[in-house]
Design brief:
This protein has three helices and two strands. It is an alpha+beta fold. Strand 1 and strand 2 form a beta hairpin. The relative contact order is 0.13.
């Protein structure tokens, strides 16, 4: 296991906005395996069900759009 830290820095202010522990090779491999399994399930999902899931995701994004806008603006340094 690694203990290396990655810092997210606002490019406009050079302020550290977040810190994250670097993942180990094993953690990355596990995440890739889970993503592959999820993709296999997604491919088998019908179009109407996919549409409903995407509409729900869009609704969630719209509900919290101010929060996401602030995060994106901070990350981009604008």
């Amino acid at each position: 296991m690694t203990s290396e830290i990655i810092h997210s820095i606002n490019p406009a202010t050079e302020e550290v906005t977040g810190s994250f522990t670097l993942h180990s090779r094993e953690q990355i491999e596990e995440a890739l395996e889970r993503a592959s399994l999820a993709f296999d399930r997604w491919r088998k999902t019908s179009f109407p069900e996919r549409a409903l899931l995407m509409q729900n995701a869009a609704r969630c994004l719209r509900t919290h759009e101010d929060r996401y806008a602030r995060i994106i603006t901070t990350e981009m340094g604008k």
